[in-house]
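Researcher: Go.
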Amino acid sequence: MSNKFRKVLAAILAGTMVLGSSVVANAAEGSGEGTGSVDVVEAEDIFSVILPTDAGTQFNYILDPTGVIAKTNFEKYGGTASASFVEDQTMYFRNKPASGSNVATYSNVSDPIKAYNKSTMDVEIQVKANLATPSGIIISTSSVAGQTTGTATPSIFLAVTEDGNTAKAAITETDRVVATSSITNAKANYKVVYASDSKTYKTSLATGSNAKTDDELEAAGFDCYSFSLMGDCNPNGKWIGLTEEPPKVSLVWTINKPDGALEVGTSPLTVSSTGLITHTGLTADKNYASMKITNKNGTFDIGEAPVTWNLDNHSAETGGSYTCQLGDFWMETLRGFSGGKVVVTLTDGSTVEANINIPAA
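Model: Structure:
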């Protein structure tokens, strides 16, 4: 085969290879597609507050314009410690007993109403007051406790205080806003978690989720707003022979849920790790009837073993709230028991229940 022929053949083969490659490349085809997904928190804003729903008898007051309670050695009030009643004080509220005591004390300031914010945003609380207008008693806009001259007509002063000893706003009118305040958020107590059961992201309380008592809530860093009722009356007033009852005072406190926030409810019946049962929101129609405890031995009526009740804010007629501290026997039978439960039957036949989790000793 001549060299010339070889060159011609090589050129033809080279062209064929180029043509063949071109044909294969033009025939090849690929495809693909993708869909999008969004990972987002189900609800970023959480609304959760702890707010008493009923003060019970917390705002009941006693007028003592002449100091007769101290002069008679407090006999009407069970010989309460002398520090509670002094001759120059003219109005008293019944306060809860000190820790470790079952004897109530009295002062010119009511026990506080405390509101805790467990939300991811700041919330606003508003306190509104209503005061009946008596015909034979003057409603004063400032303290009349030291009044020794002037009108002898009985007069009374009632005010809301935010710090327990300084009047913030006198209560003189019907349906008047007497206090407003912003309660700081608890956003630092939250974290975002993935809920595998619902395959969603949720904003979840990570710190202080089990906090129930004032000490526990404050230790967890939840901001609190508290207010009380305080007041006095004039000692020089002609109170003897007065047939008209002192005026009724009513307070209403409100926190509105911000738009778009997910509301997280709290049970009216709770049990702390130390065995303190707290029940709030009772009414005349749905009041306390009975309580049963389930421990490792079975289910028993609460009266089967010693407990300590605090009924200062509860009324058999109107409801309110109460606490019940479980005694040593109950605590021993509940320690480390995962099935502990308290069930309260209400006067309308319905029940409310809560789990009891007492850590093992």
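Model: The radius of gyration is 35 Å.
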